[in-house]
Known about the structure:
The chain has one helix spanning 153-175; strands spanning 2-4, 12-13, 18-19, 24-31, 36-37, 42-52, 57-58, 63-65, 79-81, 86-87, 92-94, 97-98, 102-104, 109-110, 115-116, 120-122, 127-128, 133-134, 138-142, 145-150. It is mostly beta strands. This is Gamma carbonic anhydrase family protein.
Amino acid sequence: MSLTSYKGKTPQLAEGVYVHPSSVLVGDIEIGLHSSIWPLVAARGDVNIIRIGERTNVQDGSVLHVSRPTTKNPAGSPLVIGDDVTVGHKVMLHGCQLGNRILVGMGAIVMDDVIVEDDVIIGAGSLVPPGKRLESGYLYVGSPVKQARALNEAERSFLTQSAMNYVILKDEYLAEPLS
Length: 179
């Protein structure tokens, strides 16, 4: 894995974190307990911070980035991802905030200053435009994204199960010697 310092900040990994060797993490990034970063993920915490919670997985080919502070936006747009989040393959997250128990479908794009509340599914290929707020308990789909319907109990349960499936998988990877 490539952990690269930028302006004196080096990515910090909590206990039990798995980062695939082909991934690149740069700058002010903190990753919580038992989370996982899979092949070819690029995460740049160079002009702002990236914070990833516990038991969260970021899958193959995803891009995580931020926006720098400006006169119009003095705090800039950090990237904050909560606990038990599943970020599907080839997702782009840019300067947004994701709560807990979220599934971001494959190929989705979530842009600056978006707030995604807890217990949300964002469908594959969806585009969440800047500044949008996604309300807790719903499925969102489309480009631009629209609220489709309330999540059912099985879907709500799956959000935590999906995260736990990746905790199990990363533990299997951590137990294997690198070859």
